[in-house]
Amino acid sequence: MPYFTYEHIRFYYEDDGGDGEPFIFLHGLGGDVNQTFGLMKQSNHIRRVSLDFRGHGKTVAFGHADDFSFKQFAEDVMALAEYLHISQFNIGGISTGAGVSLHLALRYPDSVKKLILSRPAWKDKPQETLIREAYAKVHEVLQDTDPLTAQNRYENSEVYKSINSLSTYAGESLLGQFKYPYVKETSMKFVKLPMDCPNHDREAWKNLKLPTLILASQLDPIHPYTYGRVLSEYIPNAKFIEITSKTISNKQHNQDSYEAIENFLNER
Question: Which residue, of 53, 121, 208, 214, has the greatest Cβ tally within 10 A?
């Protein structure tokens, strides 16, 4: 299994290799490379690259709790690109991965050729109170018990019931966090990242000159449709596509996402 070391942390990553155009595709909060590599099929003309963020997947170590940030995650991605000798690349991500991609494109504009923001979960401020509380509750219930007991306690919490009433998919996604073997050790990510944001001024989005694809769906309180709309209004060369909500059909959602990303990356 491929790993590289950066700041004393062994990061797990995946890389197709070959001559395709590099596309770094980043997963969401609590996810791993299986999320992105599972969505994007392998092809000859696209070189898929991804990593497990700190405290995610097979990258169990994370350093300090304050390292659960968009700034640090973007630096980790740049370290991987340097390790693989990739000087320019297309970048995209889902949810948290979209936020990291946005931060990276703003901070390292000469390195990024195209930008893809799928189901963005942040604008230019921390997440909404209900979402922050829903994630913070995951951390809270894990502190003095095992993950199974913690999950049962979480299911009975008012904040979970509120989210689940808005979207059963969102509720399932939150419960899925308890399946990660190291969820207790890494649970500060559920506190720190929702309180952070990719950048603090949406006016900076107007400086992005690269082709940008934004994907958003309805019926998703963690990834509001309106966030995608706002981003598309500020980023000059943004193309906005509404995709099927996971609440309606997970299979169709993934198909919509794949087709939109594949077509966008193939545009010349």
Answer: 53
